[in-house]
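Box 3.1. Reading complex inputs
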Amino acid sequence: MTERELRLKTAEIEKISHIDYFNIAISVDCVIFGYDDKELKVLLIKSDLEEFAGLFSLLGDLIRPDEDLETASYRILKERTGLDDVYLEQVQAFGSIKRHPSGRVITIAYYSLIDIKHHKMQLSHNELNWHPVNELKKLAFDHKLILDTCLLRLQQRVLETPIVFNLLPEKFSLRELQELYEAILGIGLDRRNFRKKISIKDWLIDIGEIENDVPHRPGKLYKLKPELKIKPARRKLQPGKS
Amino acid sequence: MTERELRLKTAEIEKISHIDYFNIAISVDCVIFGYDDKELKVLLIKSDLEEFAGLFSLLGDLIRPDEDLETASYRILKERTGLDDVYLEQVQAFGSIKRHPSGRVITIAYYSLIDIKHHKMQLSHNELNWHPVNELKKLAFDHKLILDTCLLRLQQRVLETPIVFNLLPEKFSLRELQELYEAILGIGLDRRNFRKKISIKDWLIDIGEIENDVPHRPGKLYKLKPELKIKPARRKLQPGKS
DNA sequence: TAATAAATATGTACTTACGACACATTAATT
DNA sequence: AATTAATGTGTCGTAAGTACATATTTATTA
């Protein structure tokens, strides 16, 4: 920096530091994906802002000064779903000037993948609900944009890396897996080619069991190879917080 | 005031501002890639923090309350290089608690691609220099991590989308293009297969000219099809700012 | 109990992408 | 005119992707 630039910067900081520069809030928003009833779903809450009356919004919160971005995301997930062992991935930041009606808030978007039927899962209250991703038209803030961006990222990831299994129970059939891929990608897949593709990836173990709750010939059950399970760095939450 | 006093004062103000519990500062850091002498380079500046004496850092600045994230990135690029028509892509946010010694600063990383030889380019001052990406070991802050992350993203993008041309002059030979890909990917490529691959993508126009400054048989010159040029939404900078 | 229905499980042929590799051509240099 | 060094193309074998058909197994129904 030149001396001239430094002078300018100093003057600038003195003038507006507390008024402006540090008047930008930072939040984390989580796109929490789940899978149920052959549909990809997302966990939403009714917006509590007047401007967005009747609309749903993603789950988010301001970042605390003493927590990492990921820690904040894990905290939100834990608070809202009771789960602390989830897949989480940062997507990107959203920071349009007018994205939040109450002031300048820059948000960092994460998506996470959750097994809706997981025994430990418990939604924090009753205005929190799973919504089919396909049926959503409008959300509060710029959350539809964030959701779409996260879905796109998810669609890219599932083809390369074994993350979809976070959406399924431990044991699953190949049909269930295919239906999940179809729900995420939004397209139909050829059963034979799908199985070939999965087989080549060598992600699964045949556990020697079969489905027992289907009204037709039961399929074999598989599970993900243990060494491929993505273990999220389990973050320690703030003491005193559930 | 001397320059040193100014620096101290700046640091002091920044530090004080950061003490407040709920105040987190937010910045943008730009990984500005260039290509020259068959090497991928990145534009760095000497760090002005004592903690990082002797180390280089990326170009960044705090985000102003009245500018979008992209606007802030464009501003930095314009201030530092004089260019305002550049390719820019957000990568992700970095927000470890202790990544900045003066306080909590969350930063959003962008990378951009610049033709170093562009006639309009002019570095803002002489402590600003191009460094070969391969030779960098340690940078100030977590900037090495940011750089590596951006490079990885770049490597993924160049295979799918025609962005590398932002690093080249308008006209180029296939050899130059191949050398650029090799520099970005860090691997050698087979000339015949490379040309086949580029040919299939149908990105280029043969402009009917040949190289004229090479000490051997000159190659044909090409340019990117105009409709494939990625036109960055040219952001309006703040009035009063160059 | 036997026939039927519905889903599982698997294989083949065709096309397309990828990688290793060789030879003729052109322009500058000697 | 011969030499050198890079340009410019083509082929072949392998791997992956896509379209597509038949036999098998279980639950259900008559």
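In summary: Residues 190, 192-193, 196-197, 200, 214-218 of chain A lie near DNA strand D (CB under 10 Å from a C1').
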